[in-house]
Amino acid sequence: MSDIKTRLSSVRSRIRQAEEKYQRPAGAVSLLAVSKTWPAEAVLTAMDAGQHRFGENYIQEAVEKITTIAQYPERNAVEWHFIGAIQSNKTKEIARHFQWVHSLDRLKIARRLNDQRPASLPPLNVCLQVNISAERTKSGATINATVELARQVAQLPRLTLRGLMAIPAPSHEFNEQRAIFHQVNALQQQLNAEGLNLDTLSMGMSGDLEAAIAEGATVVRVGSAIFGPRHRATTSD
Ligand SMILES: *Cc1c(COP(=O)(O)O)cnc(C)c1O
């Protein structure tokens, strides 16, 4: 568990160095720790080391963890982000337990989250997942579909449209990574030029966070570089 603290601090310094190198303001990039497949104890260890934002992919696993963490006094500082594929029978749980969703890519899901967001909670922050190229998952809307979806989601009162998310196909070539992130940033600027007010670019993971920061990421989603290699194959729910 002390490894988590060491790795967390090295990820933080990677972020700081990239901010400096690519002339981003200090603190412009926030770190979302992706705790999928890891137990609540791992989350608590990261919390001890000052980490407050956590990303989860699988709703059942996430709700158990969120419920456990809610018993600790520090719980109010914790922010939960849903970053996995969304099936329509899972929207109710997502709307109740999370502050953010990064992986919205269909209007039907947006409407369900909007309708199911409890009145006692503030609007749910959402990012639209855009699929720029042949990506590793089938999730994400095309560029054209994202433009249309953004206009519609912006009308939903119980959602706050915050920005875009992308998961490029893995590449070891820095300039290839940058080129994809550059297109996500350009799409965000295009939407803002239309009058939307997007402030979040969720892009960059353990292997490509520097390229994402170079292209304007405001949130990097980092799992294995913090928690270690995932100890079971990722599954759907
Ligand atoms: C698992 C996951 C991450 C973290 O990936 P690492 O390579 O372990 O940093 C980031 N984003 C999404 C959507 C994920 O599913």
Inertia-based shape: globular
Overall residue-averaged pLDDT value: 94
Q: Strand share of the residues?
A: 15-25%
Task: Give the structural class.
Answer: alpha/beta
Cα Rg = 17 Å
- Which strand order does the major sheet show? 7-6-5-4-3-2-1-8
Number of helices: 9
Give a count of the beta strands, DSSP E runs of length 2 or more: 8
- Specify the biggest β-sheet: 8 strands, parallel
How far apart the termini lie comes to 26 Å
The unreliable regions are none
The small-molecule ligands in this entry are: pyridoxal-5'-phosphate
* Residues in helices, as a percent range: 40-55%
List keywords for this structure.
alpha/beta; globular; binds pyridoxal-5'-phosphate; eight-stranded parallel β-sheet; 9 helices; 237 residues
Could you explain the architecture of this structure?
- With about 240 residues, this protein is of the alpha/beta class.
- About 40% of the residues lie in helices and about 15% in strands.
- The protein is built from nine helices and eight strands.
- It has helices spanning about 1-20, 40-50, 60-70, 90-95, 105-115, 145-155, 175-195, 210-215, 225; strands spanning about 30-35, 55, 80, 100-105, 125-130, 160-165, 200, 220.
- An eight-stranded parallel β-sheet has the order 7-6-5-4-3-2-1-8.
- β3 (about 80), α4 (about 90-95) and β4 form a beta-alpha-beta unit.
- α4 packs across α5 (about 105-115).
- The two termini are about 25 Å apart.
- Bound molecules: pyridoxal-5'-phosphate.
- Pyridoxal-5'-phosphate (PLP) binds near residues 34, 205, 224 and 225.
